[in-house]
Amino acid sequence: MKIAIVGAGAWGSTLAELARENGHQVDLWSRRGSAELSTVVERAEIILSAIAMKGVRSVMTQLKGCDLASEVILVTATKGLDPDSGNDVDLPMLPSQVWRTGFASGAVGKPHPAIAILSGPNLSKEIRRGLPAASVVASETLETAERVQAAFSSHRFRVYTNLDPVGVELGGALKNVIAIAVGTCDGLRLGDNAKAALITRGLAEMIRIGTYWGANAATLYGLSGLGDLLATCNSPLSRNYQVGYGLAQNKSLSQVLEALEGTAEGINTAKVLIKLAQQQNISVPISYQVYRLLEGEITPQAAVEELMQRHSKPEV
Ligand SMILES: NC(=O)C1=CN([C@@H]2O[C@H](COP(=O)(O)OP(=O)(O)OC[C@H]3O[C@@H](n4cnc5c(N)ncnc54)[C@H](OP(=O)(O)O)[C@@H]3O)[C@@H](O)[C@H]2O)C=CC1
Ligand SMILES: O=C(CO)COP(=O)(O)O
């Protein structure tokens, strides 16, 4: 199979390695490289985007102008929310929707790719070390999801299919905000009870937002929800966790970002999520404190106090 991977960051490079090991012809594109995007994607049966959220729109605009194979599948592996959409009436766009609407407004007669989402507990550094991992590929049709599953599955990367693309994509995006909260909790040395409470109540927030968005709650209890929460909230490899940990050391956000290797999507996601939650009156107290912490409106210690002093309520 010919596979094009756009985005040669940590995740794109790791997925390229997995696909090459499976015997596919893999071309990797980076905006900094010498290869033309149009050449890299020509005749590709799968185009996988591992672009950070902030670059998705610009790469989509470039890709729209390229000649694509008629049966191509576009797989998005970005874990974020689009900051340039969403208002009182419309939800913000998920990365897959940025791709879909971009292609829908493309030139007449050009093929519209089938779209799939790849998401799960997949810390790229572990996968690069050859350690086993599992992930989920979601699409509106089983046929599309199964084609991507077959392309990436291997003895060390187990890929499940799922027919709830919204749930799978949201699980990967929303957990990053909770990972920042848990990194802060660990940085403050608040203990394992506090950490368990944050992960569990964070999942409740993800389910509240997810079901409002039309996701299936069961999806969020799966790999791209609870699974990814467990990986990122328990690993210093997670950039989002590192952001929270750094803020708990009284570093400023810009100091933390200067030292950070790669992208921490939870910073943008927290902003987009809080705007939506406030517009629609959805309760997300942990994510709200993360947002305030990132905005410099509150100290980590005060955020903990605010969460502990909320009015009493039933668990479910
Ligand atoms: N690393 C991981 O473990 C995992 C990451 N992800 C998700 O994958 C996405 C990428 O993460 P990761 O690879 O780790 O991040 P990196 O920071 O390592 O790479 C980011 C990628 O996005 C590209 N990019 C950023 N801005 C733009 C832009 N304006 N135009 C074009 N390209 C741009 C970068 O290109 P350039 O190199 O030229 O700057 C690079 O290829 C994120 O959404 C992340 O949440 C998902 C699962 C696992
Ligand atoms: O999404 C990831 C693992 O599943 C990567 O997490 P970070 O982006 O926080 O490093």
From TrEMBL:
High-level lineage: Bacteria, Bacillati, Cyanobacteriota, Cyanophyceae, Leptolyngbyales
Keywords: Cytoplasm, Lipid biosynthesis, Lipid metabolism, NAD, NADP, Nucleotide-binding, Oxidoreductase, Phospholipid biosynthesis, Phospholipid metabolism
A Pfam family recorded for this sequence: NAD_Gly3P_dh_C
Its biological purpose: Catalyzes the reduction of the glycolytic intermediate dihydroxyacetone phosphate (DHAP) to sn-glycerol 3-phosphate (G3P), the key precursor for phospholipid synthesis.
PANTHER family reported in the protein's UniProt record: GLYCEROL-3-PHOSPHATE DEHYDROGENASE, GLYCEROL-3-PHOSPHATE DEHYDROGENASE [NAD(+)] 2, CHLOROPLASTIC
Source organism (scientific name): Myxacorys almedinensis A
HAMAP family: NAD_Glyc3P_dehydrog
UniProt pathway: Membrane lipid metabolism; glycerophospholipid metabolism
This protein's encoding gene: gpsA
GO cellular component: cytosol
Transmembrane segments: none
Active site: K175 (proton acceptor)
Domain of life: Bacteria
Subcellular location: Cytoplasm
Catalyzed reaction equations: sn-glycerol 3-phosphate + NAD(+) = dihydroxyacetone phosphate + NADH + H(+); sn-glycerol 3-phosphate + NADP(+) = dihydroxyacetone phosphate + NADPH + H(+)
Family of the protein in this entry: Belongs to the NAD-dependent glycerol-3-phosphate dehydrogenase family.
Binding site for NAD(+): G7, A8, G9, A10, W11, G12, R239
Coiled coil: none
Binding site for sn-glycerol 3-phosphate: K79, G120, K175, D228, S238, R239, N240
Protein name (database record): Glycerol-3-phosphate dehydrogenase [NAD(P)+]
